[in-house]
Amino acid sequence: MVAEDDDRVLLSLTGITKSFPGVKALQDVSLEVRKGEVLALVGENGAGKSTLIKILSGLYRKDSGEIRVGGKIVEIDGTKHAKELGISTIFQEPTLAPHLTAVQNVYLGREIVTSVLGLQTMNEKAMFQEMEKLYRKFFPTVEDLHRPVSELDALKNRVIEIVKALSDQASVVIMDEPTAALAEHEREVLFDFIRLLKAQGVSIIYVSHHLRELFLLADRFSVMRDGRNVATVNKEDTNIDQLVSMMVGREISNHIVKEQVRIGKELLRVSDLNRRGVLRDINFHVRQGEIVGIAGLAGSGRTETVRAVVGADPISSGTVAVEGRQLRIRSPRDAIKGGIGLLPENRKLQGALVELSVSHNITMAAINRVLSKKLVLKKRQESQIAEDYVKRLGIKTPSVNQKVRFLSGGNQQKVILAKWLFTQPKVLIFDEPTQGIDVGAKVEVYNLIAEFVRNGGAVLIVSSELPELMGLSDRIYVMHKGKFVHEFSRKEATEENIMLYASGGHE
Ligand SMILES: Nc1ncnc2c1ncn2[C@@H]1O[C@H](COP(=O)(O)OP(=O)(O)OP(=O)(O)O)[C@@H](O)[C@H]1O
Ligand SMILES: [Mg+2]
């Protein structure tokens, strides 16, 4: 019996500990990964999930504890060694070399070479053909694979990282928030891959805040809290509510209720906005006290719309007005001056200056509010403001002086959220506001949005989470192929009829 049980264990961790200055990231973590299972690793932002994964993938060294692969004790001493041991990782942060093409990235360090007249040359064609098969399942256009990845959008970068890990032929594939930037149908392709890997006996460690999604995939759940592994349970023996209370150590309500606030004058009006080939005749408005949602499939133009509004992308024609005054917006800076802030998606790439402290990041978009008349930084005041946001958003950091680089993924996102709240705009636009944020913090984000409109602001939200969008919004616009195709009132909106318009089923 015992021997049989041991056979099933591919990877085991015992008593793993890891500290950073001022932070005990992991304390006595023990975990077993069985052959051919999907083990979900869940926990609040800063619980230690990514740290554990970085140890397994050779990026960090553990302080103490024991790791066994196939029963043998190993000291993983680098990323190359981890790969040799059969452990391949899709990290939470992008890791591709921006100047290299997709093919070059995927085959970095294990290029396919052929010998031509005794000369070793790289066989780009063979690498391309091998990769094309995987990539085509996500996107039909494979020309992308020959361009530097810096020229491709975040979604394609994500897919290339996934393809890279899948083509490693690993026995353990670790995925840290792999679906963060993926659209619904791409998620499904990824899930099919995961099931395929599983059927081949590959083990998957899957980190996500998306509990509903995890219930489709996982065999077991391992819950982390404050650097400890508090429980490991079979999927059949648990449910979302129980997992959430194990993660946060208290009961929280997952329910979104939009409170009724007075709807006032029109704050934002966008008229006849066009961007050739991308957006067509976009017209909408948001009033004081209103939360307005934009629904649509990935690629329908939601992000492009909000980026065009704040001048992050060029437009062919159209106008943007705040409180009836037409703005001249050529860059996001003009938008901020005009009273519009955009909290972008993929905040890792676009929002934070990771080498700066938490407090500088929070105040930088409205720096004049913490400068004296002689333009000297009022340090004490800046720290106080930062500490206030850290407390309200539950940002986990040893102090406001910590560099943002050292915060966990979700906590970096909260810092950027604080930055935009501090600019005190009239109109705040959120693109996927709760992506990568844990269940407890989501509720805090909803509360902050509610507080913002209660105080007379207007909010525009893009979200792929329909329950979230429907729970928050007074009205919802639906996009399809670069156009606004329908507007729903709060009462009319259901998941089914939003999806109908989003998928073009109304045409
Ligand atoms: N290189 C580092 N230097 C200092 N502190 C770090 C470093 N890496 C992680 N930490 C700290 O260790 C703790 C655990 O972080 P980790 O990134 O493992 O969390 P996580 O569970 O992955 O969270 P999230 O869901 O937000 O991604 C956090 O308090 C984080 O600030
Ligand atoms: Mg993480």
TrEMBL record:
SMART domains: AAA (SM00382). PANTHER family: CARBOHYDRATE TRANSPORT ATP-BINDING PROTEIN MG119-RELATED, D-ALLOSE IMPORT ATP-BINDING PROTEIN ALSA-RELATED. Keywords: ATP-binding, Cell membrane, Membrane, Nucleotide-binding, Repeat, Sugar transport, Translocase, Transport. It comes from the Bacteria. Pfam families: ABC_tran. This is Sugar ABC transporter ATP-binding protein. InterPro entries: AAA+_ATPase, ABC_carbohydrate_import_ATPase, ABC_transporter-like_ATP-bd, ABC_transporter-like_CS, P-loop_NTPase. GO terms for molecular function: ATP binding. Residues 11-251, 261-506 form the ABC transporter domain.
